[in-house]
């Protein structure tokens, strides 16, 4: 097992809330560490003792299937003890505050809190309070409102870079590639985190969606400060984004975050921005399709395309999620032992 040797310098982040402060080296460290854990996961015994004795608490204030379960599985594969919180069966329903909930998990000896919340900023607020109390607890943002979903963007990055070089996935493999991100960009924390990682890689990012779900301002997203910083383009139709694209990431329509009537109908949305086999004819040969899930079949992507292994990386993204989340827990947690 050579995971430790993949870290030439100490991991610099106690918390992972956003990818805005990630360096090229941080991305490569995550990719290389995840590749090591992918190898562990291919073994008969898929477990390592790295986080033995540490406690990882999954505090999910908003529903999740992929993120919660893959963080739990990742923690178990690293031999950590896991705690799972669900708001409906917790003392939150009796009036306990979110901060007091976090302090309760702190008092039980939690080392890492994985937090999802429907409001942007909650993981950062808890991290700030735990830092103020001079605890050594780490916070991993598992998706906060419309802000960020860093572990999703990192597993997307790992999926893409592993496709380009299965034995040595690294950030610069995406330099010069055209990546289209299609759909409900406005409400998407996945898109915002991907904008940091993809611009850091030097990819050319083309956003496409209806004006109500894709404000022009996204063209001014600051992007990563890197020598190869990729560009961001905004389109209110899908065709220019798909033209010669190497990868297409389609986003879920986040109906739960829409407070106004932003679309005429789901059928018209599919006609304008739904991904289909036919539409992929505009892309580069060998184009691959991603979706963070959960998917509204027949809305943002056709059922046939979603299930077509020639194009769809959706199942691969979920598989990558375990190795990437093992890497994040390892990088944050191994300094605590
Ligand atoms: N991609 C994603 O965050 O999925 P879940 O909501 O199922 O965790």
How would you sum up this structure, described in words?
The chain is α/β, with parallel strands linked by helices. It has two domains: 159 residues, Rossmann fold, CATH 3.40.50.1370; 169 residues, Aspartate/ornithine carbamoyltransferase (Rossmann fold, 3-Layer(aba) Sandwich), CATH 3.40.50.1370. The protein is 34% helix and 13% strand. It contains ten helices and nine strands. The strands form two sheets. The protein has a five-stranded parallel β-sheet. The protein has a four-stranded parallel β-sheet with strand order 2-1-3-4, sandwiched between helices. Strand 1, helix 2 and strand 2 form a beta-alpha-beta unit. Helix 5 packs across helix 6. The chain is globular and about 55 Å long. The two termini are 18 Å apart. The protein binds phosphoric acid mono(formamide)ester. The site of phosphoric acid mono(formamide)ester has 9 residues, from helix 2.
């Amino acid at each position: 097992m050579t995971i430790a040797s993949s870290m030439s310098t100490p991991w610099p982040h106690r918390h992972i809330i956003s990818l805005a402060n990630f360096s090229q080296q941080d991305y490569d460290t995550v990719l290389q560490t995840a590749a090591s854990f992918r190898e562990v996961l291919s073994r008969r015994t898929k477990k390592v003792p790295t986080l033995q004795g540490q406690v990882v608490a999954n505090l999910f204030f908003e529903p999740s299937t992929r993120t919660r379960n893959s963080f739990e599985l990742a923690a178990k594969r690293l031999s950590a003890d896991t705690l799972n919180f669900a708001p409906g069966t917790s003392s939150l329903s009796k009036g306990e505050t979110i901060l007091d909930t976090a302090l309760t998990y702190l008092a039980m000896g939690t080392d890492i809190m994985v937090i999802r919340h429907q409001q942007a900023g909650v993981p950062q607020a808890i991290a700030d309070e735990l830092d103020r109390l001079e605890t050594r607890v780490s916070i991993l943002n598992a998706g906060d409102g419309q802000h960020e979903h860093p572990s999703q963007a990192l597993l997307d990055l790992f999926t893409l870079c592993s496709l380009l070089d299965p034995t040595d996935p690294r950030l610069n493999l995406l330099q010069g590639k055209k990546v289209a991100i299609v759909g409900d960009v406005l409400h998407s924390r996945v898109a915002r985190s991907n904008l940091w990682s993809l611009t850091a890689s030097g990819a050319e990012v083309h956003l496409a969606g209806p004006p109500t779900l894709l404000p022009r301002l996204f063209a001014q997203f600051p992007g990563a400060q890197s020598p190869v910083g990729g560009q961001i383009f905004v389109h209110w139709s899908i065709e220019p984004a798909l033209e010669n694209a190497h990868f297409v990431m389609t986003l879920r329509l986040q109906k739960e975050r829409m407070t106004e009537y932003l679309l005429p109908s789901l059928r018209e949305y599919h006609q304008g921005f739904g991904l289909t086999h036919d539409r992929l004819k505009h892309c580069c040969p060998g184009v691959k399709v991603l979706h963070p899930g959960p998917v509204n079949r027949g809305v943002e992507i056709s059922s046939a395309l979603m299930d077509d292994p020639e194009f769809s990386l959706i199942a691969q993204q979920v598989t990558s999620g375990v190795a990437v989340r093992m890497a994040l827990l390892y990088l944050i947690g191994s300094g605590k032992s």
